[in-house]
Amino acid sequence: QVQLVESGGGLVQAGGSLRLSCAASGRTFSHYAMGWFRQAPGKEREVVCAISLNGGSTYYADSVKGRFDISRDNAKNTVYLQMNSLKPEDTAIYYCAARLSVFSASGTVYRGQDEYAYWGQGTQVTVSS
Q1: Of 15, 28, 56, 82, which residue is 20 to 30 A from 71 by alpha carbon distance?
Q2: If we measure between CA atoms, which residue out of 94, 107, 81 comes closest to residue 20?
């Protein structure tokens, strides 16, 4: 089992920045590919970005490309989501997710929520206009 705890959410004005953190415990963090997802009120949960277990490969949804940055620190068992130039449409609950990836190619990233086995409880991000 992997336990994931997100933090860093909050209320920010449009154009502002936030950095989310997701701390993992319970297993060898470097064996897991990670992803960030979000769910806005009344909408389906969607992928935001993802990172391979070694951090060498990343994926971004078109809606956040150029504004968000995913990174990980395997020594600290933490994945980060730096969000810049925030827009009201970024308002959502943000979830991090983990998937065991040690038996796959090290650069593999996973985009589908069904590909992830472990989820955090989520952190609210609200962007005011």
Answers
A1: 15
A2: 81
CB atoms within 10 A of CB 71: 14
Beta bridge mates, 68: 83
Which residue, among 96, 72, 78, 75, has the nearest Cα to 9 in the 3D structure? 96
Measure the CA–CA gap between 68 and 119, rounded to whole angstroms: 20
Would you call 27 exposed, middle or buried from its count of C-beta atoms within 10 A (0-12, 13-18, 19+)?
A: middle
Burial track 34-56 (b if 16+ CB lie within 10 A, e otherwise): bbbbbeeeeeebebbbbbbbebe
Q: If you count DSSP H runs as helices and E runs as strands, how many of each does the chain have, helices first?
A: 0, 11
Q: Would you write out the chain's pLDDT as a tens digit for each of its 129 residues?
A: 899 999 999 999 999 999 999 999 988 999 999 999 999 999 999 999 999 999 999 999 999 999 999 999 999 999 999 999 999 999 999 999 999 988 888 789 999 999 999 999 999 999 999
